[in-house]
Amino acid sequence: MKVHKVLNNNVVVTLDTKGEELIVTGRGIGFKKHEGDLIDPNLIEKQFFLDNKDTLSKFTELLSQIPLEVLTTSEIIVNHAKQFIEGNLQDSIYISLTDHIYSAIERHKHGFDIPNGFLWEIKKFYPKEFKIGLYALSVIKERLAIELPEDEAGFITFHIINAQLDGTMPNVVNMTNIMREILNIVKYHFNFEYDESCLSYQRFVTHLKFFAHRILNQQSQTQQDASLYEIIRQKYQEAYLCTKQIDLHLIQQYQHPLSDDDSLYLTIHIERLRTELKNS
Fold first, then answer.
1. pTM greater than the 0.85 cutoff
2. What structural domains and CATH numbers belong to the chain?
3. What is the secondary structure of 35-100 as a DSSP string?
């Protein structure tokens, strides 16, 4: 394995057998090295191969500016997240999370911690991802000797969700807003308090996360049988009335009317939630 490019004393770029760039990190691995020099295999700590060329370019640029300890800390967090998150995390998480952690640490050192206005919603809507955020704070404290506030666990949660959905941070924030608004409409329509431990609530929140993501990305739901929509509308009339309120709100605030399929699934989830809360 030979040096293709030296980013700093701890990070070099090499080429694999197919000629694709591979990022290799290790303390002192790039010290006094030049293109074509052999890499000492005993110094290699981590290797990164990113499929997306644009992501690889941005990651390479980031690594030339950020300490190795921050990178390895970020990788530990990402590897932990992959054990508990369903589906894949986009490669962009290595860039966004590493950059965020470094920026958060620098702000904290200068007394400029940023409050997270969505912390309450994050805890309620994304409990699994928020646990990862809390784990991240413990790893940062242990490895980097920096104790970041709980608000940062919320921001890290957003980065995890963003990597799940392959979206952008503003979209995740807007997605959370839509979820909050719909939950409030349902809550006040039926005049009940949510039991966050009940299965129907958890399923509803999960459905709303992907529903809100579709709205913001202008994606449509798979078309279902129109007769099923009519059956559900007639069978669950109270839940359907609530769905129509949601439809009106989305038209007014987001210029996005519900499709029959969206109405169908929302009505089913609302009815399940209403029934479970009523019986309990």
1. no
2. 5-49 (2.30.24.10), 68-166 (1.10.1790.10), 171-279 (1.10.1790.10)
3. TTPBP-GGG--EEE--S-HHHHHHHHHHHTTS-HHHHHHHHHHHHHHHHHSSSPPPTHHHHHHHHH
